[in-house]
Amino acid sequence: MREWRGWPRGGRSLTCRPLTAQSPPGLPAVWTSTSVSGMSSLQALCSGLPLRPLPENCGRRAGVPHAPVRTPNLSPAEEQLALRNALRYFPVDVQELLAAEFAQELRLYGHIYMYRFYPDLEMKAYPIEQYPCRTRAAAAIMHMIMNNLDPAVAQFPQELVTYGGNGQVFSNWAQFWLTMSYLAKMTEEQTLVMYSGHPLGLFPSSPGAPRLVITNGMVIPNYSSRAEYERLFALGVTMYGQMTAGSYCYIGPQGIVHGTVLTVLNAGRRYLGAEDLAGKVFVTSGLGGMSGAQAKAAVIVGCIGVIAEVDKAALEKRHKQGWLMEVTDSLDRCIERLREARRKKEVLSLGYHGNVVDLWERLVHELDTTGELLVDLGSDQTSCHNPFNGGYYPVQLSFSEAQSLMASDPAAFKGLVQESLRRQVSAINRLAQEHFFFWDYGNAFLLEAQRAGADVEKKGANKTEFRYPSYVQHIMGDIFSQGFGPFRWVCTSGDPQDLAVTDQLATSVLEGVIAAGVKASVKLQYLDNIRWIREAARHRLVVGSQARILYSDQKGRVAIAVAINQAIACGKIKAPVVLSRDHHDVSGTDSPFRETSNIDDGSAFCADMAVQNFVGDACRGATWVALHNGGGVGWGEVINGGFGLVLDGTPEAEQKARMMLSWDVSNGVARRCWSGNRKAYEIISQAMQENSGLVVTLPHEVADERLLRQALRH
Questions:
Q1: Which of 40, 428, 578, 650 sits at a 20 to 30 Å CA gap from 413?
Q2: Domain range summary for the chain, segments of one domain joined by +
Q3: 253-471 falls under which CATH superfamily?
Q4: pLDDT tens-place string over residues 333-379
Q5: Which residue would you say has higher pLDDT here, 173 or 36?
Q6: Residue in 681, 249, 632, 713 with CA at minimum distance from that of residue 441
Q7: CATH no. of 477-690
Q8: Phi first, then psi: what are they for 280, rounded to 5°?
Q9: Which residue has the higher pLDDT, 291 or 419?
Q10: For residue range 409-465, what is the model confidence (pLDDT) as tens digits?
């Protein structure tokens, strides 16, 4: 038996055994664990497509949430092309059998998911040592992929959708099997290339190169329309990866819990002038993949959260998780309970099983008949980036009626959605005449409402602004300008104790940064995040992998990464830790209606920042990188990217973390500085003083605005 020392300098070692008959071809050794049966299953999962014999075709499984039926409207020739594209994954001797069932999937569901190949193995993030791989990087990537497809995490697991209604990990199950097989074979001198879910293959590269490069939805700009997307996705040639679905970095709803906590806290400060939100009411909608976080966030900030949801299964899932305290399908009971909680200043998360438009209109009725304003803060987290295919359900129909009409008459369904949006905005506008504050949560709600003809215009504003602000513009914008954004890590051991160690390290690091002296505005952000870490463990926020998220700036991210890497090296943490972030960050996303909506120099519709970030992370040590079209506000509306960086306790990992994380923040701060943001100017200037290798072009302000007008008169 040979041994491979996976954790140097006192860290844990792993035992390797010679190749067995069940191991993937070409592998000289596999990592082993105490669970032989578990390893055998994972070995089978990494051995390529199961073809001889073919697995049984169980189709769509009952009792599992499923994606809405898609309506790509393919021509007969395009249907043949979609089928041909799917069959090219399979040898000739099985094509006749598979062609018939793939054609049926295309007709019934608007896409070929290849349900026959949904794995029998329980899909979850297994401890890293159980994956049969040649490299730690590959095993870490497998850990992340499996988490994205865990039914406890994924919104529609059989359709490979992690969140957002259509955020795909892969386009079909053949791609999953091939990707796992390639990762098992990959060496430190190969890079796996992914084209919109399709594993193009392993290509020779250097040990310092990324082990994985992902692109999703990179469609020529003139063809990046919603209708064109439906056609291309049905053909199996592109994919909507949302943000962290297609980059394998989703950590369950914890990420959006944290973002919503900070958003509501800062909204209370900005709009209500309140640090204490006891007795304040926050009304919103959505309890699905990401929006389900809103209930838990309301409890953490100490307010009353009332969340409407039309899908009973999604609502019950959050209730069983303990994230939703109470549930009712009675609007009368909802209002009664809201009043009671307000009077007693209770902390409450209340799920209303019904349409949010009914809820908003009832709140207007209460205001107009009693004079009582029952809501203080409001937003919306329906998947309005995908409003006509299950992202938004019109108030005129029941949930089942809407699903039926969506598939049978898409044009009629679209008309009802747009009418419903107009009604929702009308109710919000009435409440906003009082002391009520609404914001767009970056889900394209106001954008789609505008397209529907709703009254959301802000007179005299540019086209990225509406009557109500984006949370980025008024609530989170200053955070991004200061270099703060959603930084996260995953403990690949799967051990909660490892996560507890990282929590302690992160808290200690942030307290140390504060003690060393920071500006008051920066200190407030650190204090909010220290509070978050302490609350996170108490509120049991882990769903799926052992992960944590917090908002931090460049200094904090680098210091936390170094501390974690050193803890791995000395054995305090048992296995590698994957660093990542949401694409929704300082530098990762160019999105004129969200992340870059407060860029005022005309470049909000330019995507240089996100593309440069993707390339720059790859050059500076990222284990994998991803670049996506779409995410958040929808296809064709945004370019965004992300990364994964494996910390394994080595000096090389520390060096990569220092280099890559610094760039990953400074890029966006420098861009925001150049656009004229004063806070970004201060932060990047300070960074240049601390690092002589950083030299950024700084803007000169126009001292007298009259100069512009005078010059243009001639």
A1: 428
A2: 57-153+170-235, 253-471, 477-690
A3: Urocanase like domains (3.40.50.10730)
A4: 999 999 999 999 999 999 999 999 999 999 999 999 999 999 999 99
A5: 173
A6: 632
A7: 3.40.1770.10
A8: -85, 145
A9: 419
A10: 999 999 999 999 999 999 999 999 999 999 988 788 998 999 999 999 988 777 778
Q: Do domains 57-153+170-235 and 253-471 have the same CATH topology?
A: no
Q: Under a CB-based contact definition with an 8 Å cutoff, are residues 277 and 305 in contact?
A: no
The structure tokens listed for 465 are: 């602004």
CB 473 within 8 A of CB 446: no
Given a contact cutoff of 8 angstroms between Cβ atoms, the answer to whether 670 and 696 are in contact is yes
> Is pLDDT above 80 for 642?
yes
Q: Residue 360: which H helix or E strand, with range?
A: helix 356-370
Q: Which of 350, 269, 336 is nearest to 305 (CA)?
A: 350
| Lookup: tokens for 686 | 């300070």
d(CA 223, CA 168): 20
Tens of pLDDT, residue by residue over 23-49, are: 333 333 333 333 333 334 899 999 999
Rounded distance between C-alpha atoms, residue 696 and residue 633, angstroms: 30
What is the side-by-side order of every strand in the sheet holding 14-18? 2-4, 14-18, 29-31
CA distances from 372 to 294, 348, 493 (A): 24, 20, 52
CATH class of the domain whose range is 57-153+170-235: alpha beta
- Predicted local confidence at residue 289, as pLDDT: 63
Mean pLDDT of the chain: 90
CA separation for the pair 400, 412 (Å, rounded): 15
Distances (CA, A) of 323 to 51, 151, 317, 331: 42, 17, 9, 21
Give the C-alpha separation, 38 to 472, whole Å: 44
Residue 703 Cα to chain centre, angstroms: 41
The CA angle 627-631-637, to the nearest 5 degrees, is: 95
Task: Give the tens place of pLDDT for each residue, 519-545.
Answer: 888 888 899 889 889 888 788 888 899
Using DSSP's 3-state secondary structure scheme, residue 490 falls into: strand
- What pTM value is reported for the model? 0.86
Check: CB of residue 620 under 8 Å from CB of residue 210.
no
